[in-house]
Amino acid sequence: MGAAGAIEAALTVLTVVRGTVPPTAGFTAPDAATAGIDLVHGAARPQHVRLALSHSLGFGGHNTVLAFTAV
């Protein structure tokens, strides 16, 4: 479990570098509760990403947020 944050951070960097937003896991179709929210579902979407955040939570209240920007 300790490496999960590192894997998430690496995938977040790939999102910024490749300009592709991955789909939201487990989300199949929008409904009234998600109306007006731009959620990616089904397949990844090409999109210019200038800033992305990777937020990881750990046992004992350890929290880390990393911000990645395009160069």
From TrEMBL:
GO molecular function, one term: 3-oxoacyl-[acyl-carrier-protein] synthase activity
Any GO BP annotation: fatty acid biosynthetic process
Keyword presence, Amino-acid biosynthesis: no
Stored InterPro entries: Beta-ketoacyl_synthase, Thiolase-like
Signal peptide: none
Domain of life where this protein originates: Bacteria
The name this protein goes by in its record: Beta-ketoacyl synthase C-terminal domain-containing protein
Alphabetical UniProt keywords: Transferase
Gene3D superfamilies xrefs: 3.40.47.10
Organism for this UniProt entry: Streptomyces nanshensis
